[in-house]
Amino acid sequence: MPITPLMPVYPRCGVRPVRGEGVYLYGEQGEKYLDFASGIAVNALGHGHPKLVKAIADQAATLMHVSNLYGSPQGEKFAQRLVDASFADTVFFTNSGAEAVECAIKTARRYHFVNGNPERHDLITFDTAFHGRTLGTISATNQAKMRDGFEPLLPGFKYANFNDLEGALALIDDNTAGFLVEPIQGEGGIRPATKEFIKGLRKACDDHGLLLVLDEVQAGYGRTGKLFAHELYGVVPDIIAAAKGIGGGFPLGACLATEEAAKGMVIGTHGSTYGGNPLAMAAGEAVLDVILEPGFLENVEKMGARLRQALEQMLPNHDHLFDHVRGHGLMLGIKLKSDSRRFVAHCRDNHGLLTVAAGDNVVRILPPLVIDESHIAECIERLSEAARVYVPAADD
Ligand SMILES: *Cc1c(COP(=O)(O)O)cnc(C)c1O
């Protein structure tokens, strides 16, 4: 078999969407799917949101791209709004999550470099973490499936067990720059960090002059009912990476930092040809307009609680299959007692419900942030029916 023109790195399924409308996707033959995957937590406003569509269309007709060699009224305005809404003092815009994490890693290293401690270059990261697919970001996880065959990887990362504060603190030495951690692991299986863990990492950073770098690419941007997930923990990070929901489907990411943490990022130290171009800024502003509307985040929290409650009510009816629900807001996971990939495929192919499989046999439930009660009811109906007729594989 010759290689396919589209490099065959994804196990693509039979769903071939050609159109989206709100919380629904439509395939080539008109098949309709309830989309509780949202392009993996990207389509925060669902599909075809009129505000986002209009903002992109208007900006495309006005000015799509200019180089970062020129002044950016669009970037200045959007960055100011993110600064006003968060812990950060400054923002670098990227085109993806991995690039936002790369910028975060570079910012952390430069901080210690300009402080006269260039030997402090190691970030302590965590088991089952996911930070992206660039060489830097695969080096920041110890998951073999992402690293195998790509060695030599980037030095400067050490790995502790997620939620194991003692283990993480034990790795601190003269070369440590800080910690890089997802407040809620997404790909790893919707594993929320405990409060003690995140607070303990913050305290260690304060005690040892280290930086707390959070990867909020999946958990951030309204997904948990807070603009950023660290707000749930009552800690203030030094640097975060955001992406996924930030552009609502337009490729956009951001690295946000405090003035202190970003002090090494001076002229010439970093760049991106596309990063933060006027079209991306228009998309980002339209999404932020909606997310910051009064009541929007409260409604995410409310819908998250309803969905969780409905899932928890359903679980005991299918005791052979479901274990428990975890997560925050509209970033929920159902831990299964058997292979989650197979059940996700069953829901998709036989019940018109899109979810995402994750590590630890978890089914990720990541609906658009604009769902209402009717979508929750429909999801539960489809999930229950899918579970009722499901026969796990004999070897599961
Ligand atoms: C998706 C994801 C990334 C990578 O984002 P890309 O846009 O695919 O580069 C990084 N970190 C986390 C936590 C993610 O969920």
Summarize the topology:
Blueprint: E1 17-21, E2 24-27, E3 32-35, H1 38-41, H2 50-62, H3 73-85, E4 90-94, H4 97-114, E5 122-126, H5 135-139, H6 144-147, E6 157-160, H7 165-170, E7 176-181, E8 184-185, E9 191-192, H8 195-208, E10 211-215, E11 239-242, E12 253-257, H9 278-291, H10 296-314, E13 322-328, E14 331-336, H11 340-351, E15 353-354, E16 356-358, E17 362-365, H12 373-389
Parallel strand pairs: 3-15, 5-6, 5-7, 7-10, 10-11
Antiparallel strand pairs: 1-2, 2-3, 4-12, 8-9, 11-12, 13-14, 14-17, 16-17
This protein binds pyridoxal-5'-phosphate (PLP).
Modified residues (N6-(pyridoxal phosphate)lysine): 244
Subunit structure: Homodimer.
Subcellular location: Cytoplasm
A few lines on this structure:
The chain has helices spanning 38-41, 50-62, 73-85, 97-114, 135-139, 144-147, 165-170, 195-208, 278-291, 296-314, 340-351, 373-389, and strands spanning 17-21, 24-27, 32-35, 90-94, 122-126, 157-160, 176-181, 184-185, 191-192, 211-215, 239-242, 253-257, 322-328, 331-336, 353-354, 356-358, 362-365. It has 396 residues and is of the alpha/beta class.
